[in-house]
Amino acid sequence: MSDQPNLDYKIVLLGDSSVGKSSLVFRLSKNRFCENLEPTIGGLCVIQNIEIGESEVKLKIWDTAGQERFHSLTPLYYRGAKGAIIVYDITNSESYKRATDWILELRENGEQDAKIVLVGNKIDLERKVVEDTTAQKFADKNDLHFFTTSAKTGEGVNQVFFVLAQLISQMN
Ligand code: GDP
After folding, report:
1. Is the distance from the beta carbon of residue 91 to the nearest atom of ligand 1 less than 6 Å?
2. Is beta strand 81-89 parallel, antiparallel or unpaired with respect to 8-14?
3. Could you tell me if residue 37 is left (phi over 0), alpha (psi between -120 and 50 degrees) or otherwise beta?
4. pTM of the model
5. Per residue in 99-143, pLDDT tens?
6. Ligand 1 centroid to 19 CA: how many Å?
7. For 5, 64, 84, 145, which has the most beta carbons within 10 A of its beta carbon?
8. What is the DSSP letter of 69?
9. Chain segment 39-61, per-residue pLDDT in tens
10. Measured from the CA of 123, which atom of ligand 1 is nearest?
């Protein structure tokens, strides 16, 4: 029996509708769902265990289930979240601009020390309109980590969750 502490991290996905939030979780999780702990949120929670060094960490990954469309994410969605993944679609400049709003929203409603990762998704598409260097500069300025991913091919996806979990584990 391991006497490791219970490493249990809540992570929330944020970003405009259709940027690929659910697809990223789906790609990571092999489709394993947990029951919705707070049914009023309307969100989905996926549990994924990952290894960080010698420890096994249980990620509880919350997806908006479309609630972001109506700006109706409740404070419960953010409560207790140790990390957040802010997603934009590299083929949609509006979704990139909105990433800033999502960060503010998280800062206002979420835990003060939540770790944030910025993700440009859909890199398998050729119609890129948001340059990586632009997003990287923004991330550097705001002390965020930045990754690009494709939920379609899987490129970069595991790394996002792994690095975020690592950042959180370093806080403890
Ligand atoms: P959400 O609303 O942010 O959760 O976005 P979804 O995960 O529902 O994805 C929205 C649409 O984008 C769907 O049609 C997905 O199949 C598509 N999509 C998501 N991720 C990718 C990706 O990495 N590449 C491509 N080509 N399409 C993607």
Report:
1. no
2. parallel
3. alpha
4. 0.90
5. 989 999 898 888 889 999 999 999 999 999 999 999 999 999 998
6. 6
7. 84
8. G
9. 334 457 889 999 998 899 999 99
10. 23
Distance separating alpha carbons of residues 45 and 12, to the nearest angstrom: 9
What are residue 157's phi and psi, to 5 degrees? -70, -50
Contact status, residue 11 vs residue 62, Cβ threshold 8 Å: yes
CB 17 within 8 Å of CB 29: no
Question: Which of helix, strand or coil describes residue 162?
Answer: helix
Q: How far is the CA of 122 from the centre of ligand 1 (A)?
A: 7
Cβ density class 3-21: b for 16+ within 10 Å, e for less: eeeebebbbbbbbbeebbb
Of how many residues is the chain composed?
A: 172
Q: In what helix (H) or strand (E) does residue 155 lie, and over which residues does it extend?
A: none
Q: Are 89 and 17 in contact (CB under 8 A)?
A: no
Q: Is 169 in the pocket of ligand 1 (CB under 6 A)?
A: no
Burial 132-171 (b: 16+ CB within 10 A, else e): eeebeebbeeeebbbbbbbbeeeebbeebbbebbeebbee
Find all residues with CB under 8 Å of 3, minimum gap 6, and list them.
Answer: none
